[in-house]
Structure formats: structure tokens, C-alpha cells
């Protein structure tokens, strides 16, 4: 079974901190490409938050602080690629449909590579710009809930009732969700 990240909203904070919040349950990609060749100093405050800690919802092109590992079908993967390729053509001026599709395939494949965890594992991202390059670090949180509660996570989860933080390798970043996010030793970096 394929696994990909989906946006999740544990509280209404995403609607305040991002210019556009992703809807809960959207398929998501890292979204770092939105900031390529952009000077962070020229970004507004909400754009800087998205750069620092957002996953990009494929449908709304809105941002989510967290994503959740979710099983997907091949048809869903193909739909993700097509939808993202459309955005790359419309919003980012991809030179042609083939180039947009190849870039979308790469982004969706990378998103899938983050999901080598059990379903319902939460993912968080921390980004910074070093020497003009965007560096991403991904962290995981594992839920304590059973499979029967999984559907509830997409719309009604409470950040204070189901998180179990694993490990303590690194300090939390500025966006620490009330001290709940720390690495579990399973981080993925991308530059």
C-alpha cells in the first residue's frame, strides 16, 4: 500500500498563522518549491511562517503545520500528480505540461518518502535558508489512538489527548506546538 501525507488541523491556529490554511484531509507535499529563488527578507510574516513550518495542500494550495501519514491508492497518487502539475503550470509558469508533470512526480515521490511510518503518524517540517538554499528537516509524532479513532484525526483531533513524543535528540524549533514536538531520531533532511 502506498502512503502519503495529508493535511491535518488539530486546532484553528493554521487559519491565523498562514495567508491561506489548507483544508483538513488534503493530500500534501513539502511545498518548499514555492519559495525557491525568493529572498526570505522580502516575505511577509505569514509567508515566513509557511516557509519555516508549512506543508502545502495540493488542492487549496494552502498551508498546514502538520501532516498525517495516510494510505493511498495508485489512482490517488496519479490524481495528486495531475493536480500538482496543473498548479505548476498555472501558478509557476512551467514551460510545458511534461515538465510540470515531471516536477509534480518528483514532489509527490518525495512526499511519499516521508511516510515510511505507520499510518496516523504525524509529520512536522522545519525549514531554514542556509547560503541561499532551503534546508528541510522533518520530524514525526506517533498517535496513541487505535485504528478506530483514525478518521477523527482529520477534522477533530485534540493536540493534548493523543500525542506521544519519542526520543529527545534535538531541541524543538520555534513552532513547537506547546512543547510537544521533538525529534524521534528519524529525521529526513532535504536541501
Most strands sheet: 6 strands, antiparallel
Order of helices and strands: EHEHEEEHHEEHEE
- Global structural class: alpha+beta
Mean pLDDT: 81
Unreliably modeled segments: 154-187
How many distinct folded domains? 1
**Helix count?**
5
Number of strands: 9
Radius of gyration (CA) equals 16 Å
Shape: globular
Strand content: 15-25%
Distance between the termini: 28 Å
Fraction in helix: 25-40%
Could you characterize the architecture of this molecule?
The model is unreliable at 154-187 (pLDDT under 50). With 191 residues, the protein is of the alpha+beta class. It contains five helices and nine strands. It is globular, with a radius of gyration of 16 Å. Strands 1, 5, 6, 7, 8 and 9 form a six-stranded antiparallel beta sheet that branches. It has a three-stranded antiparallel beta sheet with strand order 2-3-4. The relative contact order is 0.18. It has one domain (2-190). Helices cover 30% and strands 24% of the residues. The longest helix is centred in the middle third of the chain and has 19 residues, at 74-92. InterPro entries: DUF6505.
Question: Short summary of the structure?
Answer:
The protein has 191 residues and is of the alpha+beta class.
List keywords for this structure.
single chain, 191 residues, alpha+beta, globular, DUF6505
